[in-house]
Design brief:
The protein is an all-alpha fold and 105 residues long. 54% of the residues lie in helices and 0% in strands. Helix 4 runs parallel beside helix 5. The two termini are 22 Å apart.
């Protein structure tokens, strides 16, 4: 196995198995709708904003890697949702699904 394959395998393990931190799946599981848009005391962003930021950043990296003509969003505003609240009750699950699909890609 080549060194780059070993590094890729190890990084995948760190990210997916939660060795470096809690897993993405456990961090976003069962987030009540009424908490998704609340900014906790002492924090700057809501869980919704953080989730969307992760999704947008990952999507941008993926598209940049796949398409030489990809134009990244404007920094930093293009990487954060406008509102701390999700637009609908379905938005959280849709964002989680999109993040997971892009991570698989």
């Amino acid at each position: 196995m080549m060194r780059s394959d070993l590094i890729r395998e190890h990084l995948t393990w760190l990210i997916e198995e939660g060795a470096a931190h809690c897993s993405f799946e456990s961090a976003v599981a069962d987030m009540p709708f009424d908490k998704q848009g609340q900014v906790p005391a002492g924090m700057d962003r809501s869980p919704w904003q953080l989730l969307e930021h992760l999704r947008l950043c990952q999507w941008d990296i993926l598209e940049f890697s796949r398409d030489a003509s990809h134009v990244s969003p404007e920094w930093p505003d293009g990487y954060w949702p406008d509102s701390p609240e999700p637009p609908t009750s379905e938005s959280w699950d849709a964002s989680v699904t999109a993040f997971l699909n892009d991570r698989t890609e």
